[in-house]
Amino acid sequence: MSESPLNEYIPASGVTMFTTSWCGYCRNLKRMMETEGIDYREVNIEETPGTPEIVESFNNGNQTVPTLVFPDGSAATNPRIDEVRARLQN
Predict the structure, then answer these.
(1) How far is CA 89 from the centre of its chain?
(2) Which residues partner with 75 through β-bridges?
């Protein structure tokens, strides 16, 4: 059985942040995470094959961004910075 494509995007620490080039919410959240010192890997779903499907799997078939994947494999769509901070502390 082959590994899930998601496994490549589950971070050891910090978050993986799925974005698009035009997303204002993504830019805002990136800025807040940088201010908070939260490590993230940005993956643009318009440029990285297979990633729109990963985002859709977390969002009922929608390509909603920002979608963040945490080290435990869970995800959050357009979370507030306090939610990101709290989930990383657990």
Answers:
(1) 17
(2) 69
pLDDT given at position 18: 98
Domain contains 60: yes
In a domain, 6, yes or no: no
Cα(54)–Cα(58) distance, integer angstroms: 7
CB neighbour burial string for 27-66, b if at least 16 within 10 angstroms, e if fewer: eebbeebeeeebebeebebeeeeebeebbeebbeeebbbb
- pLDDT tens digit string along 62-85? 999 999 999 999 999 999 999 999
> Torsion-angle region of residue 31: left (phi > 0), alpha (psi -120 to 50) or beta?
alpha
In the structure, what pLDDT confidence band is assigned to residue 4 with cuts at 50, 70 and 90? confident
Residue 41 inside a domain? The answer is yes
* Beta bridge partner(s), residue 19: 44
Structural domain harbouring 60: 13-89
